[in-house]
């Protein structure tokens, strides 16, 4: 029997309540999350406090339910993702189906496991863990897979059922000519520091309306803001490959522009005449200028398919350059999207044989 | 001292290095001395390089060894002009196929004579030094310089055609036009060479060879005895990708040549020097080459062969292994004016011999751009040179934030 929207919303609310339980008793899994996520203790606390959607509005849940679709069964395959992302992933799956099975990431399973167990304690027996879930053995319902494009493609290739892929992405910031640089930089720093910039909404590039002088000025202000915030929320462990990427990026930008290297971040300022490049994650921001939103649209065109979020002090102006699917938000709120469906609006469904 | 004068003097010293190599004599100065002087010149006149040296807390005045020289990442060539001069004779550009046209790297060359001298000298040494007479048919599986005027690889192939080849028109030499391989011209020139018992030199990129093999299907297309093939570059999405060993085996089979006669070249737009696999000549080195005898297939063997016929019928092999000296597959030789230093990707300090690092390449022919270039290619020093182990992958994704490689689908910077 098809479930009503009210029933689906109730199931979602139960998972949210389960998430509150996990958050309330997070000390039990804190060390494991720190170890698996690589975030600092303060970074994990920040994620629980600010980025776990524990109090969604009814309208948001209604929207999430409406966006979730309907499936006989949903198998959720989680990647080593922003760990709190498991809540939204399971909520969407639960909204879509009364029968949900979850395969947590092998690298970062703690929060997802705890969430499923907490949901069971709240009486949700329709949400099951299967750490060895075999995609090829699924013959009904659909699969929701979170990960990079090649992971999604690999799952789709093996799957006998439709696959909903939630790929990777990035955010950009648009700093309008009206912006108060101090406020904008402080807000953007919050967006960068969350999850050590490893979320698909994390801003990697800041486009500053104006000329190169504006970019230099904003870059310096952002550098100071990140330094301040880094003392409160230290960056976690940075693996060797990322340290090498950082080194290369710093050398490149020192040659081609300016690199401000903080104790746990890098702000690089590039001339507006140079092509726009993607910096590494782990608190690296590429700052450059554009004369206006129209010019910025051209500069980001080659990156647009990856842009999932645009943050700005001026939403109306940002709307001109944001891809149609990108979430728009105020600076400081890029990592706190409404609980209204997938964070990534590019999500598409691909049928497989 | 005036910039132009300093540059010209350095070019003369660089070309003297090449001339000494061609005469088989030791150079008048060390490569370290020349490279360090070029680095000091570049730090004096290129603001970005001076900034990079300062950021690394390195004073160019203190450079005493080429490995001391601060290297410019290849990415910088995509973001800004890496040049001592505003006006240059020629600008080579990367293909832009891997990162999009807006991300084409540029290498501005002020005095192309230095580039040309080095390319021809070292190319001759590793591709045709055994041949008498020295001029042979040169065929290029690539578009002409008119079609791709800013490709350093095409420029080099043109140099080789002029330096090593019989006089031939562009259409007879460059066999790709509008993306189509001109097999009939290839066949005609090979047939003439066969009749005159002349080996040919075939130059091309990996993806061109894949298209060539695809065009031939199951047919073989034997080259004259003593022929050799230069293979360079990655695929960049321009053809299906074939593992290097498989491509080499298949080329050897189809062209009925020994695998040792297929010489890999390693170069990149950002450099002025090239490196060659020691597969064709290296009598002093141990033979590390595995020849699969079963890969030997029929060869076209005589002047009576019809020019346009691609062979499918079996014939006895004609290639004799004695034609080819023992070579080392996978080991690349450096010219005396260039050095590949594997460095730790994080500290950029040289790693021990035998340890894998990313290639920091000191190229004393890069007088007016960057005498030291930091690539993303993994290399390892071995006796006789270095091994090329593929491009260092970008950091793997550790979250849902998109990785640079994932976004851009980057492969190698190789030409």
Structure description:
With 353 residues, chain A is of the alpha/beta class. Chain A folds into two domains: 5-168, Aldehyde Dehydrogenase, Chain A, domain 1, CATH 3.40.605.10; 170-330, Aldehyde Dehydrogenase, Chain A, domain 2. Chain A contains twelve helices and 13 strands. Chain A has helices spanning 5-24, 27-37, 41-51, 58-68, 85-96, 110-121, 149-158, 181-193, 212-232, 240-256, 293-299, 315-321; strands spanning 74-77, 100-103, 127-129, 142-146, 163-166, 170-175, 203-209, 258-261, 266-269, 284-290, 307-312, 327-330, 348-350. In chain A, the strands form two sheets. Chain A has a seven-stranded mixed β-sheet, sandwiched between helices. A six-stranded mixed β-sheet of chain A has the order 3-2-1-4-5-13, with helices on both faces. In chain A, strand 11, helix 12 (315-321) and strand 12 form a beta-alpha-beta unit. In chain A, helix 1 (5-24) crosses helix 4 and helix 1 crosses helix 6. The longest helix of chain A has 21 residues, at 212-232. Chain A is globular and about 60 Å long. By secondary structure, chain B is α/β, with parallel strands linked by helices. Among the domains of chain B are: 115-331, Rossmann fold (3-Layer(aba) Sandwich), CATH 3.40.50; 339-408, Luciferase, domain 3 (Roll), CATH 2.30.38. Helix content of chain B is 30%, strand content 17%. Chain B has eleven helices and 15 strands. Chain B has helices at 3-23, 31-45, 47-55, 74-79, 112-127, 152-164, 170-173, 183-195, 206-216, 244-255, 404-408; strands spanning 72-73, 90-93, 106-109, 138-141, 176-177, 180-181, 201-205, 228-232, 262-266, 275-277, 331-333, 338-343, 356-363, 372-382, 385-391. In chain B, the strands form three sheets. In chain B, strands 1, 4, 7, 8, 9, 10, 11, 12, 13, 14 and 15 form an eleven-stranded mixed β-sheet that branches. A two-stranded antiparallel ribbon of chain B has the order 2-3. In chain B, helix 1 runs antiparallel to helix 2 (31-45). The longest helix of chain B is centred in the N-terminal third of the chain and has 21 residues, at 3-23. Chain B is globular. Chain B starts with a helix and ends in a 7-residue tail after the last helix. Mean pLDDT of chain B is 83; it is low at 283-326 and 409-415. At the A-B interface, helix 10 of A face helix 3, strand 1, helix 4 and helix 11 of B.
């Amino acid at each position: 029997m098809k479930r009503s929207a009210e029933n689906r919303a109730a199931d979602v609310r139960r998972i949210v309540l389960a998430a509150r339980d996990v958050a309330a008793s997070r000390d039990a899994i804190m060390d494991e999350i720190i170890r698996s996520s690589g975030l600092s203790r303060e970074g994990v606390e920040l994620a629980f406090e600010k980025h776990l959607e524990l109090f969604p509005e009814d309208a948001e849940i209604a929207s999430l339910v409406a966006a979730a679709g309907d499936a006989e069964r949903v198998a959720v395959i989680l990647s080593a993702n922003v760990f709190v992302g498991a809540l939204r992933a399971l909520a969407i799956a639960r909204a879509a189906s009364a029968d949900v099975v979850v395969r947590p990431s092998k690298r970062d399973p703690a929060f997802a496991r705890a969430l499923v167990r907490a949901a069971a304690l709240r009486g949700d027996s329709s949400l099951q863990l299967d750490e060895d879930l075999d995609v090829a053995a699924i013959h009904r319902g659909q699969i929701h897979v979170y990960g990079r494009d090649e992971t999604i493609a690999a799952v789709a290739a093996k799957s006998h059922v439709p696959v909903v892929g939630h790929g990777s992405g990035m955010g950009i910031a648009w700093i309008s000519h009206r912006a108060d640089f101090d406020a904008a930089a402080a807000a953007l720093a919050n967006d960068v520091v969350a999850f050590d910039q490893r979320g698909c909404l994390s801003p990697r590039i800041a486009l500053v309306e104006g000329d190169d002088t504006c970019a230099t000025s904003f870059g310096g202000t952002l550098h100071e803001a990140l330094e301040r915030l880094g003392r409160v929320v230290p960056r976690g462990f940075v693996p060797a490959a990322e340290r090498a990427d950082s080194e290369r990026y710093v050398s490149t930008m020192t040659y081609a522009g300016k690199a401000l290297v903080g104790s746990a971040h890098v702000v690089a300022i590039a001339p507006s005449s140079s092509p726009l490049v993607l910096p590494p994650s782990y608190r690296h921001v590429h700052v450059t200028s554009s004369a206006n939103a129209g010019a910025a649209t051209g500069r980001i065109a080659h990156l647009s398919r990856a842009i999932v979020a645009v943050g700005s002090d001026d939403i109306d102006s940002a709307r001109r350059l944001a891809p149609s699917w990108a979430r728009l938000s105020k600076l400081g709120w890029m990592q706190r999207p409404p609980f209204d469906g997938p964070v990534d609006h590019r999500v598409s469904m691909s049928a497989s044989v | 001292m005036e910039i132009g004068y300093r540059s010209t003097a350095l070019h003369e010293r660089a070309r003297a290095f090449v001339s000494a190599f061609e005469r088989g004599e030791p150079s008048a100065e060390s490569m370290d001395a020349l490279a360090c002087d070029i680095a000091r010149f570049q730090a004096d006149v290129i603001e970005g390089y001076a900034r990079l040296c300062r950021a690394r807390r390195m004073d160019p005045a203190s450079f005493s060894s080429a490995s001391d020289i601060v290297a410019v990442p290849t990415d910088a060539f995509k973001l800004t002009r890496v040049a001592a001069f505003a006006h240059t004779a020629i600008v080579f550009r990367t293909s832009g196929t891997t990162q999009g046209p807006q991300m084409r790297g540029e290498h501005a060359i002020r005095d192309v004579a230095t580039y040309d001298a080095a390319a021809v000298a070292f190319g001759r040494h590793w591709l045709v030094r055994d041949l008498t007479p020295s001029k042979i048919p040169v065929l290029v599986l690539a578009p002409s310089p008119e079609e791709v005027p800013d490709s350093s690889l095409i420029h080099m192939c043109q140099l080789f055609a002029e330096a090593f080849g019989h006089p031939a028109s562009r259409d007879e030499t460059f066999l790709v036009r509008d993306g189509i391989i001109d097999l009939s011209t290839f066949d005609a020139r090979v047939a003439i060479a066969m009749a005159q018992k002349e080996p040919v030199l075939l130059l091309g990129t990996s993806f061109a060879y894949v298209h060539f093999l695809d065009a031939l299907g199951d047919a073989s297309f034997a080259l004259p005895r003593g022929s050799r093939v230069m293979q360079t570059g990655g695929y960049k999405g321009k053809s299906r990708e074939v593992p290097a060993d498989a491509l080499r085996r298949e080329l050897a089979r189809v062209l009925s040549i020994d695998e040792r006669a297929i010489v890999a070249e390693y170069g990149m737009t950002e450099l002025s020097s090239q490196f060659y696999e020691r597969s064709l000549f290296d009598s002093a080195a141990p033979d590390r080459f595995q020849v699969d005898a079963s890969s030997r297939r029929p060869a076209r063997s005589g002047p009576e062969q019809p020019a346009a016929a691609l062979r499918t019928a079996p014939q006895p092999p004609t290639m004799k292994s004695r034609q080819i000296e023992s070579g080392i597959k996978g080991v690349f030789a450096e010219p005396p004016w260039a050095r590949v230093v594997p460095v730790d990707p994080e500290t950029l300090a040289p790693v021990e011999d035998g340890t894998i690092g990313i290639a920091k390449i000191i190229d004393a022919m890069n007088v007016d751009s960057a005498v030291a270039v930091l690539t993303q290619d993994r290399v390892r020093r071995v006796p006789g040179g270095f091994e090329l182990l593929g491009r260092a992958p970008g950091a793997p994704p550790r979250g849902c934030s998109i990785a640079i490689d994932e976004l851009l689908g980057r492969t190698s910077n190789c030409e």
